[in-house]
Write a structure and sequence with these properties.
The complex is a heterotrimer of chains A (251), B (313) and C (306). Chain A is α/β, with parallel strands linked by helices and 251 residues long. In chain A, 36% of the residues lie in helices and 24% in strands. Chain A contains ten helices and ten strands. Chain A has a six-stranded mixed sheet with strand order 6-7-8-3-9-10, sandwiched between helices. The radius of gyration of chain A is 18 Å and the shape is globular. Chain B has 313 residues and is mainly alpha-helical. Chain B has one domain. Chain B has a two-stranded antiparallel sheet with strand order 1-2. The longest helix of chain B is centred in the C-terminal third of the chain and has 27 residues, at 204-230. Chain B starts with a helix and ends in an 8-residue tail after the last helix. Chain B has 13 helices and two strands. Chain C is mainly α and 306 residues long. Chain C has helices at residues 2-34, 41-59, 62-88, 93-115, 142-164, 166-176, 178-183, 188-210, 220-235, 240-268, 271-296, and strands at residues 131-135, 138-141. A two-stranded antiparallel ribbon of chain C has the order 1-2. The chains are: A alpha/beta (251), B mainly alpha (313), C mainly alpha (306). Chains B and C meet through helix 5, helix 10 and helix 12 of B and helix 3, helix 4, helix 9 and helix 11 of C.
């Protein structure tokens, strides 16, 4: 039984069928890549999964739990966490405060008005552990907006990890990164494999083939095929779709 | 003692000493004025809680001041004069009304939110006007000052002043603590990046609603103190221009700074008082000040004097 | 009898609605294109009313008075745009609210300095001061018919301008998606200047026309501003069509509400309650309308924004 399952997901924007009866599964311990040309509907699909958009039809399961009726913030509590295509960290706060905010969301109620949060040793410890996890321990007191791009993306991942997710959604984590930063991000994602299922959207094909157990190819909102890296690479339809776009897939 | 406590303590002592010192300079009249500044400081601080710290541009906050005031009126009219009932009830009713309005208003964003809060405040204003039992447009004169018991006579100007000072200081202190609490950090997180907060799992609507209700409740308390002190309240206190003035106070004083509300209220009311002595056309310089602040000090005066420190949590 | 009364109030409501449209059209385009909330728009309305009243009193010519009112207000608006609005484009809504609220205060005092605190008399042009029997048994003030006529003409002209000219197309593009329009070569900044001045002209026209039937006094700008903002929100930001529909709705709901709600309540409730609730419901009718619309259409009826 898959850890994560989508069945028949549909989304229309006016006359445009952005998501066309998509089925997809992700197993525990799997890194599943979602690839496809620009405009294929990958981000729409991710927004449907995370709950930012409401599906017109279809169901989403996480574990045994049908999370379709849940709102976006409720899905986080159910074990689904995401990063964004455009880095969304709290740019004016320190790395530490960013992580504290993420950790606080999963450590009891936020309706506490009297005690200064700075005194909560448990939260502080968790925030420090997260920083350590993504290699930002030395940068904890830097303002997030002043970090280099790759470090901000790493912080983004750390924020998503605070929820101890069962499924992690990574939306183009490698975007805008040079080779060094990419390598570090790949290593980070690889290190997460044992703890959670990961659904990865990426254009960087090197990273995809290195990390992914299976790939799903999305074209014009529809699933073209799902398979291992070799199966996908060898498939004539996929080659046809990517002819001309293979060059831009390489980092 | 920590350095950051020195200034507030000095200020508190100075304010407490004022009613004793004022008669020496023939300034007894100004005890009532400073009291009014203290009350408006509280109201402005409650607005700052949702506006500065929460990023919610609410243009109807004076409505909650009115709800608090008219709650006092309703009880007083029914013969209840105990401050122990009047003041908590004012805060409670105002908080509840704010919660109700918030459930509708907080589903909107941007200019729609501004207009929705304005619309509801207008409704409250017109409801107050329609309450003929409580004077309608002419307003209501309270029979006497509220009673506190314990041998404290609130009819005495200095005594009432000190009671107001204690209440305002406590409330401001509590709100300041709240901004450093879990709730405060969550609220500011929502202000800075709502999408990310939702993605982190925060129940954004609930947190904003609680903040909105708290702000309304504190404004209600301010309204009760205002009515109690002046002995009079009219719907005019709830007119939308009063709400706009509160926003102005918060912005001038400093958005998202704990001193923002009090500084803004003090500056605005002092300027108004001084300018009125010089000319009947005192709106003009105030208007120019607003334009200047909007263009050159949009984060307020409290932000000009301090640099933003990276708060090590 | 009630039928006649209803028709009369219907016409009044349409007239009020059309005047609101003149105000809201400029407001919604300015907000739609430049994302600037201009609270001082009401002060332009006030300027039109005061100048027209003064000019009419001194010259005796209503048409000349309107023309002068529009001209003076447009010049004032041009100054305002250059000195202040340009700085506000890059600012957030809060700064805009603050600055334009400051303009309201300044404008109110300037008007008070020139004309004094008492309301000013804006005479109805003599030729139009009598009633016209538009159908049997319904005498309707000729002046209000002129307002209706003028409103309809201007609405028509705006419709043609916005929907059937190249300029109008660029305005709509700018209001719907400004960065995109700029990428496509639309000089949004220049168009905006024109839109701002056109909006000012319309506001002044509304002020000049409404002068004879409302109180021309300090603070009249803020009074009309709130209904104009309600229209803006109900209609949807950036949509002239939305402003038109919403303005008529608000004008009708407000006027007919004030005329008939008290009557309706008196028929169904005990007199004391009705006397209290009648005016209350009439006042808040337009706000209730706005809240209801926002519940079903959170961005207004015809929001132009993508």
């Amino acid at each position: 039984m898959s850890l994560f399952r989508i069945e028949g997901l549909v989304k229309r924007f006016g006359g445009l069928l952005a998501t066309d009866h998509v089925n997809l599964t992700v197993d525990a311990g799997e890194i599943h890549a979602l690839i496809g040309p620009n405009g294929a509907g990958k981000t729409t699909l991710v927004n449907l999964i995370s709950g930012l958009l409401k599906a017109d039809a279809g169901r989403i399961w996480l574990g045994n739990h049908d999370i379709t009726p849940l709102k976006d913030h409720q899905r986080v509590g159910a074990g689904l966490s995401r990063c964004f295509q455009v880095t969304r960290v709290f740019a004016k706060e320190t790395v530490h405060d960013n992580l504290m905010l993420a950790v606080q969301a999963h450590a009891g109620s936020s309706l506490r008005f009297m005690a200064p949060r700075a005194n909560e040793a448990e939260l502080v410890a968790k925030a420090e552990a997260l920083a350590e996890r993504v290699g930002l321990a030395s940068e904890r007191h830097r303002i997030a907006g002043t970090l280099p791009h790759g470090a901000q993306r790493a912080l983004d991942v750390a924020l998503a990890l605070a929820a101890n997710p069962k499924l992690l959604l990574l939306d183009e984590p490698m975007a805008g990164m040079g080779p060094d930063e990419s390598a570090r991000m790949v290593a980070l994602i690889e290190s997460l494999r044992s703890e959670m299922a990961i659904l990865l959207i990426e254009h960087d094909m090197d990273a995809v083939f290195r990390l992914a157990n299976r790939l799903t190819v999305l074209v014009q909102g529809k699933v073209l095929m799902t398979g291992t890296a070799d199966e996908v690479r060898g498939h004539p339809d996929v080659q046809a779709v990517y002819l001309g776009t293979e060059a831009e897939g390489h980092s | 003692m920590k350095a950051r406590f020195v200034l507030p303590l000095v200020l508190l002592v100075a304010l407490a000493a004022f009613p004793l010192v004022a008669p020496l300079f023939g300034m007894e009249f100004y005890i009532g004025f400073v009291r009014r500044v203290l009350i408006m400081a509280l109201a402005a601080a409650s607005l700052n809680f949702i506006l500065g710290f929460g990023g919610m541009v609410a243009l109807g906050h004076a409505g909650f001041i009115g709800v608090g005031a008219y709650t006092v009126v309703a009880f007083a009219d029914a013969g209840v004069m105990s401050a122990w009932v009047l003041w908590p009830m004012a805060a409670l009713v105002a908080g509840l009304v704010a919660a109700l309005i918030g459930t509708v208003a907080l589903r909107t964003r941007g200019v729609y939110f501004i207009m929705t809060t304005l619309a509801f405040a207008q409704m409250l204003y017109f409801i107050a006007v329609s309450l003929r039992k409580y004077g309608g447009d002419d307003g209501y004169t309270l029979p006497a000052r509220p009673e506190l018991g314990l041998g404290i006579d609130l009819a005495n100007e200095s005594t009432f002043y000190w009671v107001v000072l204690v209440l305002v200081a406590l409330a401001l202190g509590w709100m300041h603590r709240a901004t450093r609490s879990r709730f405060g950090h969550a609220l500011m997180g929502i202000r800075d990046n709502e999408t990310r907060m939702r993605a982190l799992g925060y129940a954004v609507f609930r947190i904003q609603l609680v903040a909105f209700a708290i702000a309304g409740a504190v404004a209600g308390l301010a309204g009760a103190l205002l009515a109690g002190g002046n002995g009079f309240i009219s719907p005019g206190a709830m007119h939308w221009t009063q709400s706009a003035t509160l926003v102005v106070m918060v912005v001038i004083g400093g958005l998202g700074r704990s001193w923002g509300g009090p500084v803004g209220a003090a500056v605005w009311l002092l300027l108004e008082e001084v300018l009125k002595q010089y000319s009947e056309y005192w709106h003009l310089p105030l208007g120019l000040l607003l334009i200047a602040v909007a263009l050159w000090a949009p984060k307020g005066l409290a932000a000009l004097s301090r640099k933003k420190k990276a708060v090590a949590a | 009898m009630t039928g006649i009364l209803f028709l009369e109030q219907l016409l009044n409501g349409l007239g009020f609605g059309l005047m609101l449209f003149l105000l809201a059209a400029g407001l919604t385009l300015v907000f739609g294109i430049m994302d600037v909330l201009n609270l001082a728009h009401g002060s332009l309305f006030m300027s039109g009313a005061y100048v027209a009243a003064q000019a009419h009193q001194q010259s005796g010519s209503f048409v000349a008075a309107i023309a002068l009112a529009v001209l003076v207000t447009v010049v004032v608006a041009a100054l305002l745009e250059v000195l202040l609005m340009r700085q506000l484009y890059k600012r957030d809504h809060l700064a805009q609210v603050l600055a334009t609220f400051g303009v309201i205060l300044v404008a109110d005092d300037i008007v008070k300095m020139i004309w004094g605190p008492s309301p000013v008399m804006a005479p109805t042009p003599a030729a139009l001061s009598g009633p016209i029997e538009i159908i049997d048994g319904l005498p309707y003030p000729a002046y209000r018919l002129v307002i209706l006529g003028a409103g309809v003409l201007v609405a028509l002209a705006l419709y043609l301008l916005v929907n059937h000219t190249r300029v109008g197309m660029r305005v709509r593009a700018g209001a719907s998606d400004r960065p995109m329009a700029e990428l496509m070569g639309v000089h949004v900044g220049r168009i905006f200047n024109g839109v701002f001045l056109l909006g000012a002209a319309l506001a002044a026209l509304a002020g000049a026309l409404m002068g004879p039937i409302v109180a021309v006094q300090v603070g009249m700008g803020e009074q009309i501003l709130i209904p104009a903002l309600v229209v803006l929100v109900i209609g949807g930001i950036g949509s002239v069509r939305g402003a038109f529909v919403a303005a008529l709705l608000v004008g009708l709901v407000d006027t007919i509400g004030r005329a008939f709600l008290p009557m309706l309540l008196r028929a169904t409730l005990p007199p004391a309650t009705a006397a209290d609730l009648g005016p209350l419901f009439a006042e808040v009718a337009m706000y209730a309308l706005m809240v209801v619309v926002l519940i079903f259409r959170p961005s207004g009826l015809f929001s132009a924004r993508a």
